[in-house]
Amino acid sequence: MKDFFSNLFGRNNDPKSIISFDVIDSIYAYLYHEQNSIEFKMKGIHDTVSVNLYAFPTSLDHDEGKAQIEKAGFKNAYEVLNELYKKIDIGILSEEIIEQDLEYDFIHIQFYSEPGAEMKKYFNRVLNNFIIIFCCTNSLEINDFKILYSGSHFIDYIKGLLDTEYLDVNKPKNETQEIGIKDFKIVLQGICQYINIEIPESIELPSSENLIELEQVTSETFAEFIKLVSRGNIEEKELKKQSKKLFAAFKNEAKDYYEKVEGHFDFFESIDAWNSDWKFDPEDAEYFISEMIGEDLNFEYPEETFSHELFPYIQSALEKRNLELMTYDTHGDNYLFFVANKSDVYRILELAELTKIEVNQL
Hints:
Blueprint: H1 21-33, E1 37-40, E2 49-56, H2 63-71, H3 77-87, H4 95-98, E3 104-113, E4 126-135, E5 144-150, H5 157-162, E6 165-166, H6 175-194, H7 219-229, H8 236-251, H9 257-270, E7 274-277, H10 282-293, H11 311-319, E8 323-328, E9 334-341, H12 345-355, E10 359-361
Antiparallel strand pairs: 1-2, 2-3, 3-4, 4-5, 5-6, 7-9, 8-9, 8-10
Helix pairs in contact: 7-8, 7-12, 8-9
InterPro entries: DUF6630, DUF7821
Domain DUF7821: 23-198
Pfam family, one: DUF7821
């Protein structure tokens, strides 16, 4: 049995927005009646989209959940729920209501996005957690929802919930939230496509693409990737050789990880790339990037600025040439830089996702 309480906001059912009750309720119905947890991949979103239906108190009725509740200073899951209700102006549960042992469902949607400019100094990807809590507006029946948001990993799930904050999708607090909300709209469209939910015609879809049918990876996929990351500066013979080699490694899923990484290194060394220690001087950056683009690059920077702190100044100088500095993630203490045409960056990231070559923006 489920019970929900009124809140102080208007109903979330903008007929044009995909972040609306009609869409969320359809997703909830699938999770409740068909499958309470789904994971899938979609275009435009890094890694996996995770969608889960949970309930207070039953989803936390296990030893780990009880320990986390106690650690947070609460006696039961309902007290945690009340803390969340306070954040979104929903009336808290009284002791009398708690004693009825009712269930209160919520949806947790999790996926990665690009960070905003400030966060990009420290992270290549940021995690989005959208916690959707149902409620009632001027009604005794469920007809509305509120969203709590967090960009942190939910290692301790109760702490993760308690660290969320109310999210007004029309008024993001920063650029990272703004990007997350934009991607959330695309993710909702992807969820609907994945579980065959018909989206109302009045809704303005965030994407006109088929979000679920991912491209088939072939040798030509790698050839396109190579052309873009090398900005076309590669001989046809070398292009064919490298694309076949990388595709063969891609198909061999059992291949040792480090052997694959060595293959990626070999590839980037075959094009114009800069393998640098994690700590480098401005003069190093100017010299090696000038070598890569075939012209002198000079940029302004504050004194005592080194390594990753130089990225904004490098990118500003390259942007004037419609270029962008990118890197292959070595998972080590070094960078493997290359320069791409700015207009190709989005496609490079798409191809990187497909080919499993870990390329990142800086």
